[in-house]
Structures are given as structure tokens and as C-alpha cells.
Amino acid sequence: MRKRILTFACGVLVTSMLTITPGVASAAGGFLPYDDISKHWARSSIIRGVEAGLFAAGSKVPHFYPNREMTRAEFVAMLDRVYQGGQYQLYPLTFLSEHAELSKGEGFAEPYLPYKDVDRLTWMYGPTLRVSFLLDRLYGPGSIQTVFPGENMSPNQAISQDEAAKLLLMFTMGEDSSLALEEVKSWGWLEGEKNDKLKRGEAAAAADRLMQYLMQDPILPLLDYDGQKFPMVPEIQDVFPLFATYTAQKSVEEQKYVDAVDAIINQMDSEQTYSDLRKLETRSFPNQIGAHYYLSWDPNITLEDNLNEAFLAIDAYFEDKIILPETLQLLSANVYDLALQMGSSDSKIYGKVLERLSTYESKVKEDTDEWESLVIYLAALEIKAGKIDDALTRYRSFAAENHEALTNVTYYLIAQDRMAEAEELVTSLSPYKNDTRMVQLVKLLKQDISSLKEQSAIALDLAYSLRKMDRASTMQVKGESVLSGYLFKYTQDIDREKKASRTTGYFQSPYKRILDPMDSYTDTKDRIHYTYDSESEQWVKNRINKLDFLHEWVGAKNINERIRDLNARYYKQSYGRYDVITEWIPRPFLEEKGRQVVLGKGKILSAPLYMNKYYIDRESDQLIQHFWRYEEIYESQEYVAYSGTDIYEYNANVKVTIPEQVKNEVSR
Amino acid sequence: MKRISHILLAAVMFLSLALSVSAEQPSFTETEEVFWNIMESHLGRPDEKQLIQGALQLASKMAEEEKQMKLLYSSEDDTLHELERRLAEWQRKGGLDATTLNYWAINGMLESLDDPHSVFFTYDELRYFQSSVENEFVGFGFRLRLQDGAFIIREIVADSPAAASELQRGDRIIKVDDIKLEDKSFEEAYAYLKGAEGSEALLTVYRASESRELQVRLKRAMLTLPEAEGQLFANEPVGYIRLETFGSDGAYQVRDYLTAFARTGKPLKGLILDLRDNGGGYLSSARDIASLFMEEGLLMYTTNRNGVEVETWVRNGRDIGIPVRILVNGGSASASELLAGALRDHEVAKLVGTKTYGKGSAQQVMLLSEGDALKLTLNEYFTPKHTVVNHVGLEPDIVVEDDAAQVVEALQSLGVKSLQLSDQDGDTVINGIFFPTVHPLFKRENDGLNIRAAVLAHLIDEEITSEEEYIPLAPYLEANPSLKLEQSGNNLTLFYTMK
Questions:
Q1: What residues of chain B lie within 8 A of the CB of A113, using their CB?
Q2: A581: which of A16, B111, B236, B252 lies 20 to 30 Å off by Cα?
Q3: pLDDT for res A97
Q4: Contact criterion met (CB < 8 Å) for B1 and A479
Q5: Looking at CA atoms only, how far is residue A176 from chain B in angstroms?
Q6: Does position A203 have pLDDT exceeding 90, yes or no?
Q7: B59 CA: distance to closest CA in chain A (Å)
């Protein structure tokens, strides 16, 4: 089994940023990509923009024109490219996979622009459509018109600071589009006045600052929807160091060691690899840290033995008497990682590992980097062992300097209903101006705390709109969804007076080349369901007597119950005419409660994802659209992935009567 | 909506039941694949017996024709299992190979559909099919015309082997290797000229301007011809775009011509889009081209065998803003009919020419396990006004039979008042644009200079009752003062100005 530590090492953001770097000559060698930027103040931002693939460069593009105004289309195209590099940041709010082709949509309906002057067969169409689709997902249908109002986008007109800010707002926790420029200025991305036109050089600088921001802590730092984030531990940069420097002239033992490490890195390791390493362990090979560390990777021995080797590596570290905080961090991470693996079957292990790892604390000097690199894992083990107060004390002691410690202490204080303490701690911090990461984190934490304090108000708003929808006497739902690979498009007419609904539409099976029709009636009074089977050309009757899916079980709970029983988290943004509420039910809570219910699909094994986005028209308080994404795995090993978008129409002329013919001609 | 996933699940469950049909042992895998694909997806909902009998019938006929073998089957055979048993038996007893039997059975099933657009492709045929949609051909890179029994180069394709050689427009091809082209038909000449990519031939040509013969060795190459070609008509500005095929680049080429026309700054009286003999191509290309003519609107309805109707819309397009005439004929098919039908229904364009082919169906190419492919008809489409196209064709708004007269009529219906027609190097030239033709405008007969009656009738808008294709011009010149003939050297030009 490969260690989980590997996944910590994958900076998702960093790798995707790199992949979009174009094949143009790098500016590193003193060459400038354009001939008109050498004296411009934003020169280095422009160069970094070229390196990140934001701007076209090469022999055919000699100038950048940094002092010209940037057009709306140019800015949108630049933003599209920044998004592609930094989309990971927005994932909790978009739930768009990294490879989603935004311009194609996700179902039958292809997205299009609400403008008359941006045509399909133009260079700007693709990027504009992608950004528009993204805004739709984040803020509701037609949201690009909040930025550029009207039926014309005037793509070749210069973009204003305010318009640029409304677009950049998506990367912040700014919750109100009318305050976009203030929010974006507070991050230092833009500097001008509302109606000032944005110069190309300024745009490059904004993009550069934004990319820097996207490399650091994400928005919603306290959100942990999949239960994988906390306790937070540092990201390890190099999981496979040699722990020593070797020259081309190596002894036989050194050669064996280097070969073994190579084999492990390239996943070519065999029993021989580890028996070679074991020989190094017993002799007087000086690099005992390395020998023990890599033996802790041996899949042929038990996890206890791996753990033992991991501790022996730490022993060797202290025997060397050389202070290398990064090395101690990796060695501690290694111990923690093994504890996590063993902890899945035996939660008592955390206490034992904690006790053993604590013995090293006396060997390091308090408040040093070396000390931090050890205690961050001690605190994580304390959390895992249930000693939350101990962990909090520990995290608090260095929260002002350490990002993970600060995020952890804030998160666990809030989890313990100690919001005021959390807020006090975060507000009391005044990080150094040059520590941009800490500045960013503190600001995001403050914003996240204030959104968490709004939870009950947001829940009330949402509950109100949902109730309003449930009370509408008639309604039409137009939707598209994907259920386990089947793609559906439907219209559902709901007639609450007649207690009946009808759903018509079609679906694409992943096993067929052509569409199948869909037609069904639901009798909500007698709880009966009539579905037309086009293969047998007959109506089939079903009784609705139990909940089949976990998401149906959640769906039947009201918002207060979701907060109380399932620890649901809500986040509200106001953009243009909509209030958008995003709802997450964190995986550990959903699984714990979900396992106690019996569903039509059987018992739930795991529930990796449950999220909803509700789009509410601010004027009428009506819920006008709902997006969802759920993933559920049942004990039968059935994997259900269900996502889709429903659009609600309250004024449609809807009348549903279930025909007698349908009721009578049914087969069973 | 809370119960929607339940409804969806119900729909899915029926399907999985329908799918749980057991498979046969896979000795004739491709036959099986084609069988199931047709059974599940073909627009015509054929029954099993029809396919099985079709397969058996063709296989036994082919065996008799090609191997003089009598293969017997029962007219009661109506399952895939029975078909495979027969094929296995014929393979064993007749010593026939499975690949051949597969091909016969597959083609037999397809023939039984009475659908010429459902076609089986071998790997090479598929490649050829895809190339032709993209207007890619293997060749030397010149186009010929047949003039008085001589094959003369009328055009050299840019970036082709011919363009890189010393061949010139107007050169007459005498020999291909050792074969003389004199008195050969177009088809024969084409057969000698074509060959595999990379193969060579020695061409002997005669250059009249230098009165000498020369020999050129050329290698055949894969050439991508432009999908669209365009130009402005002389005199009164009208755009002309001819689209050869709906490949993946066609829409961009049409767009570029429209941009180029706009850049001249001349206000156009209209646009002629020539879709004659355009057999179609990709639907997506037709939609993109439609978006160059209309801002937004329904492009078509598509239905399948399950009665599911889907709308396809054009979005984010641009209104063309000038009157459009689309030239169509019996060779305008599929995507051509789709585009012409939609633009007509939205009153963007009028159709000029003859009735279109009538291929209102859409196919999908599916790859088979052995590397071959099946192009199968899955959908029928209808124009935005629900006009049926399939097997019917579109009737033009202005019916004109003659090729040159179609252009004349289109121009006049756009309000063009002055027209100028001549014959040049085997083409008919109308207001400066060359149209390849088999019928010249003028012929010298014993009774003097004759003109093609159909063209003259449309030009002067008079009914001409003559049975003859060509009629003497002189009486019309006399009677019609707005008709003038000019001669410079050997070239005759007919002028007509409407009052």
C-alpha cells in the first residue's frame, strides 16, 4: 500500500498552474517577451503572466501595449486562463471537475451567452462562454449581465475597474457584488477608482497578485466538507529526500542505498530493495535516518514494524545532533501518516503513538522551527486521540506564527462551540505585512468566522424560500440531471391542488446510442407512481413507501434538522439579483447518521459528497434554481453519483390529472 | 421534485431489464455488433427476421457469384443464433473465410434496410470517407477540363505537388506514364490519374503557348482543398460563396469570406451561397454556418425511433443583414438541405435551382471491434417549420434547371440589373465569376451564332418555346435593345441591362 503522505505532497494547484505554461521562450534568460515593457512598472507581472500562459507571446506578438486600456473581452479571456490554473480554489463553490468543458455544459443544454454582439465563431467566444458558465454556477443564471448589463457586452470596449472587480470577486469571500471593488481593493489586486479604465499593465499586475493569492490558503478555510482536512498538517515538499549528499564516487553501500531510494520513488521496489536497506541498517552505514525512513515504506512487513522503523529514523535524527527542521517534519509526518493508516482499524493507536512521539519534545528547543515541525504532529495526534483541549493549548502557543496551527485552533474552537474565543484569537492577531500568507489567512479566517456567525440567519432565509416553494399551488420544474451515467432532461408539472404531478422528457443511457422517452405520473395523495415503459409500451405502477437514497433521506429533513443533526454548513453570496446559498453536509456527520437508517438501496457504506446550491430571487424570495451533487456508496457496493440542475417556474399554467386509462391499464 | 430521482431510477430499471439479453458465442463478432446496433438504434425499427434473411440472402448470392457455391438456408431462419449457425456451417463446409462471410452478412443486413445511408466501412473506406468530408484527397493537385477531347489543366491547387512543379494552367495532359489520354472519357482519365498516396507518375504535357512538349514526374499527396471559396461579383456588388462540403473548417472559411466582403466597404446587394452538389458533412458545421446568417433560432427538429423529438438551436450568431439566395440542385443533400431549409424557414434566404436530394436523416459512425466501422441512420430531421426532407427533398422558391441560368436568376432576384456573360476556357463567366460547365453559352452553327436557350430565357425574362437547347441569338439582339454582344479577339461577351 502506498502511503497517504504522497497525496499530501501533491500541490494540486501548483501542478495545474505549471501545465498551462506555454512553450514560449522564458524570460528568465534576460530576454523580454515584448519590446515595450522594459521600463514599465508591471514588467515582472507581465513576464510572470506570459510564463503562466495568460498572454500570447512569441515572434508574432512583439508588443504588450501595457499603457493601453484592456478590453472587456481581453480581460475575460485572461480571467478564464487564471481560473483554469486556480480552479481548485473555487471547487467547494462550483463543484466543477478540473476537466469540465465549461463551454459544453454538463448535460443536453449547451450554454450560450445572453449577448448579441459576441458571436460563436470569434476568438473571444470560448473564453467568454466559459466565464459566463462559471458565473452562472456561482451566482445564478445570466450573472455575467451583472458585470456587463444589457443585451450587448461591447466586448471591445475598455473594461472599468468596477467591472473587473465584479469578475475578480469570485476568488474572494466577498459576499456582495455591489461592494466588489472595495473587496478586491482590500486584497490589493486593483487600485483605481470605480469608473477608471483598466490599463493592460494594471490587469497583468492584478492577475499576478491573484495567482500569488491562489497559491496560498483557500477561501472558506474552515470548511471541511469531506472530512479530510482537519486536523491540518503542513504540506510536505519532498517526500523522497536522500537525507545525505552523495557524490558521483559512491561506496558499494551508498550505491545500494541510492538504488533502493530510486526504486521506491519509481514504484519499482521489490523485496530485494528492502533486504538491501536492511543490511545497511545493521552495519555502520552513516545515513541511518535514510535507511530507517525507507524501511518504514516496506509493504512486506506489518504497519507496526513500519512504525517502528519510522521512530528509529527519528532516533537516528537526534543521534546526528544536527538541527534540520524540514527533516524532522518529514519524519514526524511519516509517523503520523502510519498512525492514520493503523487508526482506521484501531483508534487506540493514536494515544500510543502520541505518547511515544511526545518523548522527543524534550530534545528540541521550544518555539524554534524544529520544535514546530514536531509539535504540529503531536497536536494532530492529540486531536485524533480525543484530547482536544491539549491540542488547543498546543496550537494556541504558536498560532500567531504557524498557519496550520492557527487554522486548526480556530476550527476546533468553533467545533466546540467556542466561537467567541475563536473570534477573539483571530482578531487579536496582527501579522507582519510581509508575511503575505499569514495576512491572507487571517483575513480569510475573519471572513469565514463572520459567515459562520450568520448560519442561523442564512438557514432562516433558505427555509423561508423552500417553504414558499412547497406552498405554491402549482409549479413547473425544468431540469437536467445525471444519475449513475444516465443523462436526463425533464419537465415536471406539479399540481398541489390535485395532489398529482407529471414528468415528461427523455434520457440518454450510457449503453445506448439513441434517446429514450420518459413519461410518468405521481399520485402524491395515495403515494403511487405510474411510469410508462417504452420497451413494453405499458404503464407500470409502483408504490412509494420508503426512501431509496440517502439524499432523499436528507431531503426530507428541514434546514434546522440539517444544522442540528448533520452539522450542515451554509454560505450565502449576493450577486446581482440573486442570493445564492451553498449547502454542504460534511461527510463524517452524514455517514455517521446515514448509517443508522435503512434505505431502499440498502445501508450506506460511505457518502463522499453532499452539496446543494440554491439560487433565490432577492425581490420575490422565490427559489428559482437548484443545483446539486451527491455521491453515495451503499453496502451492496453500488456507487450512486447524482447531480443536476432544476429550474422552478411558479407562473406556468399547470394542470395535472392522472388519466383513468393510465390508472387502469397498468401492469405490475 | 424531491421524488425525481425515484422517477429517474424507475426509467433506468426498465432499461437494464431490456439489456439483459444473452450474447451469442462470438465467432462472427462484427456481424453480431452490426446486428445489435441496427436492432437497438436504426431509425426504421427493422425486425429481426428481415435482417437475418437479408444477411443469408446476400451471403448465398455472393457465394454463388464469386465462388460458384450453392449455399442453402431456410426462409424460416429468423434469429441471430440461426444466422451464426449457418455462417459457421458455410465457413466449415465451403472453406470460406470468416472475414468475407462477415462482410457479406453485414452488407446483407444493411441492404435489407432500404436505407442507402447506412453503410459498412472497412478501415480504409472509413478513412476515405472522413477525408472526403474534410475535402481531403490524394492526388497531384490539379483540376482538369475536357475541351474538344483534350484534357486541359484549369486550376492548380495551392501547396500541392503540381504547384511545386513546372506545370501551368492551360497545359494539356497527353500521357500518364505510357497511357495516352486522347479520346478517353473523364472517368477513364480519372482512373489513370488516381493512385495511392506517395505513388508517382510521369506526365507528358503539351504547352500550347510555347508550342512544346514537356515531361513532369509527380508524386501523389494528400491534399486538403478549401471547403469554401468566395468572391465578389463584378459590376453590382454581390457576394458569392461556394461551399464544397461541411467539414470541420467550412464555417471558419465562410466567416473569413464574409469578413473579407465587409472589408471592401462596398454595401452588398446580397449574397449567393452555392450549395449545388454539396453532399453534406457534419451537423455541427451546418449549425456554425447558420450562425453566420442568423442571430438566434431553431435549426431543426430531430426524431429517433423512440419518438423522442429534440430541438437544435442556433445561438449567439449574427444576422447577415442582406438578402441571400442559396443555389441548390439534386446533389445538395443532408447538411446542405438542413441549412437551406432552416435559412428559408427563418426567411433569411430563398432557394434557387432544382429540387434537393431528400436526405433528411442523420447518421452516426460507430467503430466495430475489428477496426471496421458502421455508419448507421439514427435520426430523421425536419426543418423549423416541420417540413419533411427525407425522401422528398426541398422544392426551391425559384425553380431553374440550367446551371448558368440559376446564377443569372439568383442575381436578378437580388436586384442586379446589369449582367455580363461569356465563355472562357470551358467555363461560363457571369459578372466576373467563373463557373465550370459542360454546356458552353455560345455555339457557332450554320445559322450563325447560337446561345443556350435556357440562359437567354432567364436573362431577358421571356418564355422561349423552342425545343432546341441552342437557338440563334441574332433575332433577340435585334428585338431587345438592352441586349448587346461584344467581341474582343475570339471572346464573345453578352451584356444585358434591365430597365
A1: 315-316
A2: A16
A3: 73
A4: yes
A5: 29
A6: yes
A7: 28
Alpha carbon distance B122, B370 (integer Å) = 9
* Architecture of domain B228-399 in this structure: Alpha-Beta Complex (3.90)
Last residue of a domain, one of A426, A453, A480: A453
Can you tell me the mean pLDDT for B14-32? 57
Please state the domain count of chain A: 3
Q: Does residue A444 share a domain with residue A498? A: no
Q: Average pLDDT in the B414-419 region?
A: 96
Sort out which chain A residues have CB atoms less than 8 A from B295's CB and list them.
116
Residues A42 and A10 in one domain: yes
Judge whether B322 and B269 are in contact, CB under 8 Å: yes
Q: Which of A103, A117, A516 is best to mutate for the B interface (most B CBs within 10 A)? A: A516
- Return d(Cα B200, Cα A423) in angstroms, integer: 82
Position A52: which residue type?
A
Nearest residue, CB atoms, A514 vs list B7, B18, B378 = B378
Residue A576, in any domain of the structure: yes
pLDDT average, residue stretch B221-237 = 92
A339, A441: one domain: yes
Region B442-468 average pLDDT:
91
Cα–Cα distance measured from residue A377 to residue A95, given in angstroms and rounded to the nearest whole number: 31
Kindly state the average pLDDT of the residues A232-250: 92
* Sign of the torsion angle spanned by Cα atoms A571, A575, A580, A586: negative
Contacts of A540 in chain B (CB under 8 A): 10, 14
Is residue A90 a contact partner of residue A80, using CB atoms and an 8 Å limit?
Answer: no
Tell me, yes or no, whether A18 and A69 share the same domain: yes
- B43: closest chain A residue by CA: A514
* Residue-range definition of the domain harbouring residue A387: 252-453
Q: What is the pLDDT of residue B93?
A: 84
Structural domain includes residue A82: yes
Q: Residue B192: which region, alpha, beta or left (left: phi > 0; alpha: psi -120 to 50)?
A: alpha
Residue of A nearest to B19 (CA): A511
pLDDT of residue B195: 87
- Amino acid A20: pLDDT: 35
Q: Which of A115, A488, A540 sits opposite B8 (nearest CB)?
A: A488
Q: Domain B136-224 carries which CATH code?
A: 2.30.42.10
Q: Do A608 and A506 belong to one domain?
A: yes
Which residues on chain B are in Cβ contact (under 8 Å) with A549? Answer: 5
| Cβ-contact A468, A621 below 8 angstroms | yes
Q: Is residue A514 part of a domain?
A: yes
Question: What one-letter code names the amino acid at B143?
Answer: R
Q: Are residues A431 and A508 in the same domain?
A: no
The model's confidence at residue B410, banded by pLDDT at 50, 70 and 90, is very high
Q: What is the tens place of the pLDDT at every residue in B38-49?
A: 999 999 999 999
Q: Is residue A368 part of a domain?
A: yes
- Interface check A506 vs B, CB under 8 A: yes
Instruction: Tell me the backbone φ, ψ of residue A607, rounded to 5 degrees.
Output: -135, 80
User: Is B370's pLDDT higher than 50?
Assistant: yes
Among chain B residues, CA nearest to A641: B5
Question: Domain extents for chain B?
Answer: 23-114, 136-224, 228-399, 410-497
Q: Please report residues of A whose CB lies closer than 8 A to that of B306.
A: 514-517, 534
For position A372, which CATH number holds? 1.25.40.10
Closest by CA position to B422, among listed B341, B373, B349, B484: B484
Model confidence at A667, in pLDDT bands (50, 70, 90)? low
